[in-house]
Amino acid sequence: MNRVSPLAIMRGVGVAFLLVAWAVLAHFNSAGSGVSDVGLALAVAPLLAVVVILLWRVGNLIWMVVGGLGVICLLAWFWAGLRQNVALMYFIQHLGTNLALGALFGRTLNKGRTPLVTQFALFAHNGAIPPSVERYTRQVTIAWTAFFLGNASASVLLYFFASHATWSVFANLLTFPLVLLMFAVEQYFRHRVLPPADRTGVADTIRGYRGAMRHRANTLAKHP
User: Fold this and answer.
1) In this structure, is the dihedral angle defined by the CA atoms of residues 45, 71, 103 and 171, taken in order, positive or negative?
2) How far apart are CA 19 and CA 189, in angstroms?
3) Which of 172, 140, 167, 169 is nearest to 154 (CA)?
4) What is the pLDDT of residues 56-90, one digit of tens each?
5) Residue 153: which domain range?
6) Does any domain span residue 17?
7) What residues have CB less than 8 Å from 106, skipping those under 6 apart?
8) Which of 23, 144, 178, 218 has the lowest tally of Cβ within 10 angstroms?
9) How far is CA 10 from CA 4, 13, 16, 201, 206, in A?
10) pLDDT band (50, 70, 90) for residue 1
C-alpha cells in the first residue's frame, strides 16, 4: 500500500492552516465584524482567480489584457457599493462553489459517463476495479452530489431567512468540518460495504484524485 510522504503531509497541513485562517477571517468580515475593504478583498480574491484562469485559457494576449483591465475597472466602479454588501459577495462565492462542485459530480452520473468517484478508483487501481467497487463508487458520487446541492440549498435558506451572522457560521466555519465529516462517513461505509482487498487507503485516494484531475485538465486543454 502506498504511503503519504512527509512532504505531502506538511503540504496538506499548510493548506489546511490557510483554509482555516481564511474561513475565520471570512466569518468575521461577512458577519459585519471586520474591515469592509479587507473583507471585500478576501471575498473577491477567489472570484478574481477564476477570472484570471479563464482569461489565461483564452490564450490571446490582447483579450487577456483587455479582460483584465475591464475587471479592474468594474471593481473600481462598484467598489464603494460592494463595500456595503460584503456578506453578499461571500454568499455568491459559497453558493457558486457548492453548485459548481455539485454539477462536477452530478454530470458524471449521466448515462454513458463514468461517475467521478469511479474515475478516482480507476486511476488508483490502474484502470481495473471489480463490479462491487464500481457500484459503490457510483453511490458515493451520488452522495457527494447530494451533499454539495444540500449545502447550496441550506446556504440560500440561511442567507435569506436568518441573520448574516448565522449564515456565516454555517458557510464559513462549518463548511470544511462538514466536508471532513462527509469523508469520515464515507470511510466508515467503505469499510462496512467493501471487502478489505477492494478498499483504498488515503494515499491511493489522493493518487486517484490527482490522476483523474490531470486527465480532465489534459482533456480540456485539447478540447477547450
Assistant:
1) positive
2) 27
3) 167
4) 777 777 877 787 788 888 888 878 777 777 888 88
5) 86-222
6) no
7) 145, 149
8) 218
9) 10, 5, 10, 18, 15
10) very low
Contact 19, 176 (CB under 8 A): yes
**61 found inside a domain:** no
For residues 100 and 82, the model is more confident at 100
Cell output for 193 = 460495504
Phi/psi of residue 174, nearest 5 degrees:
-100, -15
b/e per residue 94-121 (b: at least 16 CB within 10 A): bbebbbebbeebbebeeeeebbbbbbbb
Q: For the CA atoms of 8, 12, 13, 14, what is the dihedral angle to 10 degrees? A: 100
The amino acid occupying position 69 is L
pLDDT at 177: 93
Residue 1 in domain: no
